[in-house]
Amino acid sequence: MQDEESERISLLSNPGTDKTWLKILKTVSVCFLWICFSSFSEIVGTVMPELIYQTNTDYEIISQAVSMRGAGHAIGGVLGGISIDRWIQHVNLQVSVYLLVYTAISLTTAYCTEIILLYILFAMQGTIETILQICGQRIAMTTWKDKAAGPIHSLQIGYGIGALAIPQIVAPYLNSELSGNTYSGNNITCHSKLQTTTVSTVTPYNTTVTPLQQEVNLSARSMDSFQSPITETYPPRYVDVYWMIGGLCITLTLVFFALYIRDRRHTDFQRHEGMQKVTFFKSLSCQNCSASESHYAGLIVASMFLYFLISVPLLRVFSKYIFSYARDGPCLNIQSATGIVSAFWAALTAGRFVAFVASSFIHMKYILQVEVCGAIASTIGLNFYHKNITVLWVLCPTMGFFIGPIIPSMFAWANNYIEVTSTAQIVPQLGAAVGDVVSLFTLGYSYKNYGPYVIWTYQLVLSAAIVATVWVMQILGSLHGERYQN
User: Fold this and answer.
1) pTM as predicted
2) Domain 19-178+237-265+290-478, architecture per CATH
3) What is the rounded CA–CA span in Å between residue 143 and residue 24?
4) Read out DSSP for 358-381?
5) Which residue of 123, 198, 210, 441 has the fewest CB atoms within a 10 Å radius of its CB?
């Protein structure tokens, strides 16, 4: 069974017939796939104040809606991990079809005004996105094999490029009348058409307050049942940016369909389809990752679950809330707030590029240690000096530089010890999904009731946890040799 699985993999990667230019074309196409992911995903953090106004909710509720993408990641991890391994010869066709569906769902979210529908759309978006991610990572790993560390990092560089560009692209389409302070706490004063008073109470909106406190709280909320001075149109102007991203996605579907047609002409599909299919339960076995050391492979996969449980919230909390924090904490204008977001993503992309280059001559176990130690050092600085705007401009990009590569670095690290099959990717995806949902639920509640500074406490706890996890994984990896050396 293991030999048949290996043969199925080789038919996909086709190392004997795929020329270097074709491998590069596949990798570049998958990189653009990651640009589409980041654009549709990270635009939510920048348009969050408008999305709150559009759905007449608050930070707690909208965070719960966004966290449904995490629930979708869990579903997509299971569906994608199994289906891709079973029909791996059609992986490019799967990308083409799923990307078209993903585009339609993402465009619909831009027009949505009902929060319940938004919950469903975000869950569907997360499901399809995860399936596409597994497809892309599988293509990179099977195409480049033991040289996959660089290409895997290049995919995440694509994600960073999209996330870097999107705040600046969408900024002219945002309503400057919408600023933050849709929580009830901690003596923050922001001056805008909405907020001209100081919010000094830490009492949640749904509790009994004095008439004066109630007036202050209501004036600080961007959404309420009273008439607002905001001038807003429907559909909001930022939907134009969604359509720009959609155009890129549709073009990419044609590219992957062309790659699928090319593979059909140059690959022995009849022999492939005539082979014995891997059963459902066999596909879940860790023997597919390491035939001789299945228990060891199981430990590696379990450690990846814990790693993604922590690392994904570490990145998600920062990327989704840094714009809102910049508006609500130091009360920066839209241009400065989007500037900090872009600086964060520029540094994150640079970090992924540096890791991409370094992975060619430095072992991944050393790169991982540098990344997580740099992350916790940046977080400690932000906890002490987050009220200093200059420090914010310096340490936010520094944080992005170190946490940017931690996800692709883990896949590259694990690929040195086991074969990270599509099914094996289910487990870390589940960890990412759980961490995503829990972190956004709890942070949305805390942000609403206790103010923006709570995000630094979250980051410090997560950074300390990821450092401890990496140390444990390094010990685990040292117990067994690397699979390409063996």
Assistant:
1) 0.67
2) Up-down Bundle (1.20)
3) 10
4) HTTTS-HHHHHHHHHHHHHHHHHH
5) 210
